[in-house]
Design a protein that fits this description.
Elements (H helix, E strand, L loop, with lengths): L1 H17 L25 E5 L2 E6 L5 E3 L13 E3 L12 E3 L14 E3 L14 E3 L14 E3 L7 E3 L4 E3 L9 E4 L2 E3 L9 E3 L2 E3 L14 E3 L14 E3 L13 E4 L3 E4 L2 E4 L20 E3 L32 H11 L8 H7 L3 H32 L2
Parallel strand pairs: 4-5, 5-6, 6-7, 7-8, 8-10, 9-11, 10-12, 11-13, 12-14, 14-15, 15-16, 16-17, 19-20
Antiparallel strand pairs: 1-2, 2-3, 17-18, 18-19
Length: 380
């Protein structure tokens, strides 16, 4: 009888073990028939310290910390494969092995991918997606990295955005409010602020620079420093190896420190706008301008030519004019052909000068008419 009882106990024990999951694991399971869960329309609940921490509902929802009510807020961390337990860090979401393993005080960070933000010790409201994104960041805030190794070495700064493989990712970057979109865009940027870079390999080699706008693949990809530049197009090569205040739009509109050129210029425009003739200009145009209307402002009343009609104006006599033309081959004050070819002509000045000559000619014509009338009166 005693042996029978012992045998029944063993059989019951084996039967019970065959129908349950043991603390030390089960053997001989069949994935097709064995499972953890419920066989009715009920949730499965996971607890620690007898407090519900995770629930999987019949419709497949994962509910953490029993946050189920409308408007109920979640103030914990959500870790899958990474993260570090800390009572000071809240509202962080981590998906990825080795991700976010040292930040014990940050809040509101999202880390998705292997080794993402793995060395960050603090920082708030960052979003990093992609293997190694923001991996070595230390105290960055309000930054976004999307792409493998994007912003990988962002040490400190706020408001930086890197989208693309290794975008602003290879140097120990310190900076604020930089935007880099494209694989290897601003890859080696080390120190800079307020840059906007869009295009693969754009500003790839740039180490230091601020307030630049670079839109286009491989633009200025070899320069090491530069500030306040605007490059729009593709494969644009700046005039200077360390450009400041340069403009280049498609290699057809260029600028230097506010001096603008339209056309393809072999040499960089003068930053002060002073051309070879010693005059200052703000716009240089190659190959001509065609337009329906041009209006030129006159700075002051004495800039116009009507002073010719004033009583004290000394008009050159026709004999003096004849002698001047015979000697010089052009009208007084008018540039010679050689001078015009070498220096060009200034439209406003030339128009005023031509008006002056017309008014002088008018005075001569009036004087001649008076003489003709006197002669005619003598023969009547």
């Amino acid at each position: 009888m005693k042996k029978t009882i012992i045998l029944l106990t063993v059989i019951v024990g084996f039967t019970a073990n065959a129908q349950s999951w043991n603390l030390t694991g089960n053997a001989g399971t069949n994935p097709g028939t064995n499972f953890l869960g419920t066989s009715d329309n009920q949730s499965i609940v996971f607890k620690t310290n007898n407090v519900e921490k995770l629930k999987i509902t019949p419709n497949g929802r994962f509910v953490f910390f029993n946050v189920t009510g409308a408007g109920q807020l979640f103030d914990k961390n959500l870790f899958f494969g990474g993260g570090v337990e800390s009572s000071s860090a809240i509202l962080n979401t981590v998906f990825g092995m080795g991700a976010f393993t040292q930040n014990t005080i940050g809040a509101g960070n999202t880390s998705i991918g292997a080794n993402v933000m793995s060395l960050a010790t603090s920082g708030d409201a960052n979003t990093a997606i992609g293997s190694g994104a923001m991996r070595n960041t230390q105290t960055a805030k309000l930054s976004v990295a999307v792409g493998s190794n994007a912003l990988e070495n962002l040490i400190s700064g706020e408001g930086n955005v890197g989208v693309g493989v290794a975008a602003m990712g290879s140097e120990t970057l310190i900076g604020n409010n930089n935007v880099s979109v494209g694989n290897s865009a601003a890859r080696y940027l080390k120190n800079g602020n307020e840059n906007v870079i869009v295009g693969g390999n754009a500003f790839r080699a740039l180490r230091t620079g601020s307030n630049n706008i670079n839109l286009g693949a491989s633009n200025a990809n070899l320069i090491l420093s530069g500030n306040n530049n605007i490059f729009i197009g593709s494969n644009i090569v700046p005039y200077s190896s360390t450009p400041d205040n340069e403009l280049n739009i498609g290699n057809w509109i260029v600028g230097n420190n506010g001096t603008i050129g339209i056309g393809q210029f072999t040499n960089q425009l003068p930053g002060d706008g002073i051309a070879a003739d010693g005059q200052k200009y703000k716009l240089f145009v190659k190959d001509g301008i065609r337009t329906e209307k041009v209006k030129v402002d006159i700075a002051s009343s004495n800039g116009w030519a009507d002073y010719v009609f004033e009583k004290d104006y000394k008009l050159m006599s026709l004999n003096e004019l004849d002698q001047f033309i015979s000697k010089n081959g052009h009208l007084p004050e008018v540039p010679t052909t050689k001078e015009a070819i070498e220096n060009g002509i200034e439209l406003k000045a030339m128009n005023i000068l031509l008006l002056k000559k017309v008014e002088e000619l008018t005075l001569h014509a009036i004087e001649q008419q008076k003489r003709i009338e006197v002669l005619e009166s003598k023969f009547k």
